[in-house]
Amino acid sequence: MVKVQSSTIGYPRIGGKREWKRALESFWSGSISEVELLTKTKEIRLDNLRKQKEIGIDLIPVGDFSLYDHVLDTSIMFGIVPTRFEYAGGKVPLDTYFAIARGNKDAIASEMTKWFNTNYHYIVPELDNVTPKLVENRPLEFYREAKKELGINGKPVLLGPITFIKLAKSSGDTPFEETVEQFTPLYIEVLKELAEAGAEWVQIDEPVFTSELSANEHKAVQKAYTAIHEAVPSLKIIVQTYFEKVANYAEVSALPVHALGLDFVHGNTIELLQKFGFPKDKVLLAGVVDGRNVWKSDLDVKLSLLDEIQSHVEKDRLIIQPSSSLLHVPVSIELESKLDNVIKGGLSFADEKLLEIVHLTKAVQDGKETIATELEENKNALTTLNNSKYRQNVVVKGNIKNLTESDVNRAAPFAERILAQRKRFNLPLLPTTTIGSLPQTAEVRKQRSKWRRGESTAEQYEQFIKDQISKWIDIQEEIGLDVLVHGEFERTDMVEYFGEKIDGFVVSQFGWVQSYGSRCVKPPLILGDVAFSQPITVKESVFAQSLTKKPVKGMLTGPVTILNWSFVRDDIPRFEVLNQIAYALRHEVEELEKNGIHMIQVDEPALREGLPLNLSDRKGYLDAAVHAFKISTASVENDTQIHTHMCYSDFNEIIDSISALDADVISIEVSRSHGELISAFEKNTYDKEIGLGVYDIHSPRVPSKDELRQNINRALKTINPNQFWINPDCGLKTRNEEETIAALKVMVEAAKEIRAEQ
Ligand code: GLN
Ligand code: ZN
User: Fold this and answer.
1) pLDDT tens digits for 682-710?
2) Residue 700 to residues 110, 439, 518, 706: CA-CA distances in angstroms?
3) What positions constitute the catalytic site (predicted)?
4) Which of 148, 268, 641, 734 is the one with CA 20 to 30 A from 743?
5) What is the ipTM of this complex?
6) pTM for the whole thing?
């Protein structure tokens, strides 16, 4: 009889209660030794493996664990250490490993950037001036460990050569093909040792295959995998893709490997099978359970999908698994003791997803009837949640349907609005402001946790927040800023704060996922219909405005950012959820305006990063994003000024959509790339007002006036002074008070000088 196997691609590293984070941070602060760190993390790693085995997964990944990041792990495996760090060759010492990731007193850290379209960040490999060679076979060590300690014949996981090289940076002009040739023998060395040690399956992650590669690049890919296959013919190599459908399916599916892993949740992979079939000589690892989301799978739907898949691949060549590594979801819902059972019943974190995979595998192998009880439980839980009050808000659904074109457009075009706004605010040329948050000192965090723990009353906490606001209104007045902010002292996180105050969200207790290094985030869960129920930010903004004659900007997180940084229900289209969030924010914007706040900033730092990997989906996403932003902001009077803010990214491709948001003013974080960014706006003759971060807030150094003058003057070469605002980059909440005040003073002085010169 055919045994259908279950598999998984990767497991969360952080531990159910973030034990991993604690271990790392204790090591960094010097309170535990390297040996203690390694012992503790080994315990976590083995626990993770043991759990996967107990749940009943057949192909358990090893080597997916990391002390920081799997891309950095791959770099150091090949001795790729930037020359600014001391490194004498051989196995890279742990201190050097962490220094590359975090910087040290002598050298700055490597760049960190987002892993495809996730909120996970990897450390960018730097290929300049290094000759890669295999200095440590990490997958082999993990493979041996699992075998020895737990008797698990694991499936080693490697970041594939093509993806690794594509994610790396180098200033040289070595062609891609040559770099691939340089790395191929190193991968072969790793794989040979794995084969010798007894590994049967190896997973080589190539998520980059979800993007188009050129014909020449594909030739190099084909050559590399052919060489690998010839060197280790006995290994069952899986080329694993995820996050989207494969872009060049014909080429990728023809690679000489044993198996191909495809994501059947994101992107229309099933259509590829329908159109082109699946190669007869390969095993398919079908990623049918969403590895990026926290909702329970509808097992019936998944079984139909698996039926459809089986019309292209027979059972004996089928392995069932999640759509991606479970790195992107929290560990287990077992830990959630405060959630309503109706909600809990609809959730599935990493462990629960693995159980779903086990059930699906059994059904495919032995027939649906063998999991009849599980199917029934699954159906009941989902029906209960779908029919619950959380998902049945007919008013919201109706309101959104009834929105007309004029509801989502400002009453007048920008050229006309800006005149009304200038009249209202009467700001000087080159107005100065900040992006919203002001230093969140230890005292602010302490007062908040006291209140959360019930050690102070809500009134005491609110009074504390008010005192902070007053103090900083005075400071901003004294510095001489033109447009003030209340400072966001009441917010821990710019999405969670809104999640707590809008209907349709829940915040979990332990729903943490790794964002970068030891840093974890706890995205709110959007489980139901999203609706405004109470003013969110009005109190603080109105209080701040009452203290000054200068305008105070209201400060909201935009709909796209809230969507992209949450776990979004998957029973209705994502864009519908987006519109609901937008509609709730529209209400908030109107409340602010009604209460005398006539400048409102709607932050969209996550707009760019949500851009789909698949080129053909981008327009749909951008149009939906623009539409949502306009739902939120279009109902205000002409002389109410809408601001937006975005963090640094490559804007060239989305500049038209940015303009279509129709925000009166946009501020952009640019410290990392002045020149490039301005060109995006200049080339496209952006017609609305712009503020570019004129100094990098990430450094404690107070910038000099000359430096700021230079930065401002550089911007003014391409941007009209009438259109230009002067502000620092976002994120002042991470700085201390003294530095912030000193730097803002210099900024205002520089602005005054340049203003006088115009
Ligand atoms: N208003 C926020 C701040 O100033 C914006 C944060 C962000 O851009 N991510 O910090
Ligand atoms: Zn920003």
Assistant:
1) 766 789 999 999 988 877 789 999 999 99
2) 19, 12, 22, 17
3) 698
4) 641
5) 0.98
6) 0.93
